[in-house]
Write a structure and sequence with these properties.
Helix 4 crosses helix 5. The chain has a four-stranded parallel β-sheet with strand order 2-1-5-8, sandwiched between helices. A two-stranded antiparallel sheet has the order 3-4. It is globular and about 40 Å long. The protein is of the alpha/beta class.
Length: about 160
């Protein structure tokens, strides 16, 4: 098995707030050379730290279709950077023949069950991020860090 993991989940300070969401079990996969990691937003050209961004007008599927945009809290359109990051993540997953994808929940790039609703009020909706949508369109199964970690505790 080969994993692709969000960089913030393995301790890299790449989140919009320049922090991480370290999960030691996921970092071990990197250390054991069973995984590769990426931050689609940084890879797409966004800085760290950066303004929070949310999808407005739908979810990642809609962004890929051109009917929704990714906007920052100051109304800057960062859709192009999110699309570039998604394409780079897909290329990495294909190059490394990844079998499992574990991405950060709720993220406008990486969310796979829910994302923030675009209002910057903390409200979530069912939906996927831009990177998750692209990976799913290419046949990858994407799970959140919690889904992955819970699969070990319920065996």
């Amino acid at each position: 098995m080969k994993y692709l993991i969000s960089a913030c989940l393995v301790g890299e300070n790449v989140r919009y707030d320049a922090k991480n969401c370290l999960q030691l079990r996921l970092k071990q996969l990197i250390e054991q050379q069973q995984a590769v990691n990426i931050c689609p937003e940084v890879t797409g050209g966004l800085s760290t730290p950066r303004l929070a961004a949310e999808i407005q007008g739908g979810d990642g599927v809609n962004v890929l279709a051109g009917t929704a945009r990714v906007m920052t809290s100051t109304e800057q359109d960062v859709t192009a950077e999110f699309l570039r990051g998604a394409q780079a993540t897909l290329a990495l997953a294909q190059r490394h023949q990844v079998t499992h994808v574990i991405l950060k929940s709720n993220s406008p790039s990486c969310g796979s069950t829910s994302i923030y609703d675009g209002s910057f009020t903390g409200q979530k909706i069912q939906g996927v991020g831009v990177t998750t949508a692209l990976l799913q369109q290419h046949g990858f199964v994407v799970m959140t860090e919690n889904e992955f970690l819970n699969s070990f505790t319920h065996k």
